[in-house]
Write a structure and sequence with these properties.
Radius of gyration: 22 Å
Number of helices: 16
Distance between the termini: 42 Å
Largest sheet: none
Number of strands: 0
Number of domains: 2
Length: about 475
């Protein structure tokens, strides 16, 4: 008889290899592991890619760094729409898989792809035509506009690879094929790790392309990842597959997708934009505070990667179990994932709160910057347990196809509560940056409380997707 360790290792290997298990029938803890491990590794590679890209581009000077930063700010809308479409893919594909309707899951996935291609085409046309003007609109100096227009044009024109990587991977994960999504992103990012320095700096017969080389490397690498996704879909060996009949627009699924994706996009934009509000408040306290805040939040985001993987597993399990007509099992799955997530991230938060300087010193030696980073990280880490519960409940709603509830919760917590509280504590009470950092933890704690109350009401069990 296998030991617990042997069973655990067997499940891990199955997760990495790809599983054919019915996630609505196997024990919930095993289902969570099968979904969460590939997603965690996928996110880890994405985080590594971001660090390497900034490292490579930073060697080109401040104009290159500014170009990348401003272009990323323009692409934030693309990411938001892609995440909204991904929420639609998760809800609809998972529901069809739970219903044992593989053909319906493939139809739903391809409707998401059609909408993604349409959105990407519009952004590409805008980028090709107005890239220099757009850079100027987001604050680039004339020098940066001249220097970075090529980079911005390539990234905006190639945004289709962003859309398709996001939505097709969401379809794979929601179908239970998380290992395929992991491989697609590892392939794309692995190619970028090689291509970026070669094209940026030039190697052998390859000319030095500078910052434009970074854009080409990223776009080509993501395109390779999309090519792998399409290859897997065309082979038809996974739970969803491409057939010509799936590529025809279907009015019913398209209408449902747009309903879910519109609120899903707003959900992301509401949270993302709220951080800009915090930065505006912090800017009044000097650049050292902004730098410390940036470092602390990057450490916090990296620490939360495993929790996002677990939250994604909750979304898939909710969708599939609702499709299988097992809402009670869906609720049990969310509670199980929430316990795991709170235990993991809450424990990690205690460690970071006790010794935040150990993490901060890796990024800066400047005393004033480090002091701000330590204060921010300690206060944010103390709220990790709330963060963990909140992100699971939000993803549970998304998995059910109810993207409106988390959008309303985010509006209340991040705009009606976090921004006013941060201003009040920092300016009126006179706590300065401490007040802003307290407001972050308070807002995510409020999100967890409101999300938990809404989840217990159970209306998400009756949402049609």
């Amino acid at each position: 008889m296998a030991t617990p360790v042997e069973r655990w290792w067997s499940t891990v290997k199955e997760a990495l290899r790809g599983t054919e298990a019915d996630l609505t029938a196997i024990p919930i803890p095993r289902a969570v592991v099968l979904l969460a491990i590939p997603t965690l590794l996928e996110m880890a590679m994405e985080s590594l890619l971001t660090i390497v890209d900034i490292f490579v581009v930073s060697r080109l000077g401040s104009n290159a760094i500014t170009t990348v930063g401003l272009t990323e700010s323009m692409l934030s809308l693309v990411y938001a729409v892609a995440m909204g479409l991904s929420a639609g893919a998760t809800a609809m594909v998972a529901r069809r898989i739970g219903e044992k309707d593989g053909d319906g899951a493939s139809v739903a996935a391809m409707q998401v792809v059609l909408v993604a291609v349409a959105c990407a085409s519009v952004v590409s046309l805008i980028g090709l035509t107005w890239a220099p003007r757009l850079l100027g609109l987001v604050g680039a100096t004339p020098e940066v506009v001249r220097y970075g227009s090529g980079y911005a044009r390539i990234m905006l024109a190639g945004n289709g690879s962003i859309f398709l990587l996001f939505v097709i991977n969401a379809a794979f994960r929601s179908a239970g094929d998380a290992a395929v999504a992991m491989r697609a992103l590892w392939l794309a990012n692995g190619c970028n790790l090689v291509l970026a320095p070669v094209l940026v700096f030039g190697v052998g017969p390859v000319p030095r392309l500078g910052v434009e080389g970074a854009a080409i490397a990223t776009t080509v690498s993501r395109g390779i990842g999309v090519g792998y996704q399409v290859f897997v879909l065309a082979r038809g060996k996974t739970r969803i597959a491409i057939r010509l009949r799936h590529l025809l627009p279907r009015l019913g699924p398209l209408r449902e997708l747009l309903r879910i994706a519109t609120a899903g996009t707003l959900q992301v934009l509401v949270e993302t934009a709220s951080w800009l509000g915090l930065v505006r408040i912090l800017a009044g306290f000097g650049s050292d505070v902004i730098a410390g805040y940036t470092i602390a939040m990057r450490i916090a985001v990296f620490a939360m990667l495993p929790s996002w993987g677990l939250a994604g597993a909750a979304a898939t399990l909710v969708g599939q179990n609702l499709g299988a007509g097992r809402p009670d099992r869906a609720e049990k799955a969310v509670r199980t994932v929430a316990r795991y997530n709170v235990g993991f991230l809450g424990g990690l938060g205690i460690v970071l709160a006790l010794v935040p300087s150990l993490a901060v010193m890796v990024f800066t030696k400047e005393v004033a910057v480090a002091a701000s980073a330590v204060l921010c990280l300690r206060l944010v880490a103390l709220g990790f347990g709330f963060f963990a519960y909140g992100m699971v409940t939000m993803q549970a709603f998304n998995g059910a196809g109810d993207t409106v509830t988390p959008t309303l919760v985010n509006l209340g917590c991040f705009w009606a509560f976090k921004i006013p509280l941060a201003w009040f504590l920092a300016r009126t009470v006179g706590l300065g940056p401490l007040g802003v950092f307290l407001a972050i933890t308070a807002a995510y704690s409020m999100q967890a409380i409101l999300g938990g109350i809404a989840f217990r009401r159970g209306t998400w069990k009756t949402v049609v997707a």
